[in-house]
Here is the input.
Amino acid sequence: MQAHALPIHNNKLLLIQRDNKAEIPYPNCWGLIGGRSIGEETPEQTLQRKFEAETKVKPKNYQYMMKWPGKETHVFFVALTDDEVIQLQLGNEGQALKFFDIDEVEHLPLAGTFGKEFHNYR
Here is the structure.
């Protein structure tokens, strides 16, 4: 199971740029914050653990949105506060964290299911 966040602040989407390593899927692409669960974690626990590991912030305001069709991936809307945005910093994965307007996201190299679904619904 996986859990991923759609973190929003001031109508912009926060994405993480994946590491540029040939051994990982979608190297150097932009994607959602999140990842695989450990053991018997719930989707919410996975979301909080991965979000904090990748951004140094434990999100307080989140809401379950959906499960990707045909996948064991759960997606959460995360409304970041001003204080949380100030505390954001790159954690143990990735090259960069950056906020984008939706129109900007359309032109980015996007990772995995997020990229496919974004372009399908855009």
The helical segments are 43-55, 82-87, 102-105, 112-121. The beta strands are 2-9, 12-17, 30-31, 33-36, 62-67, 73-79, 96-100. The longest helix spans residues 43-55. The chain has a mean pLDDT of 92.
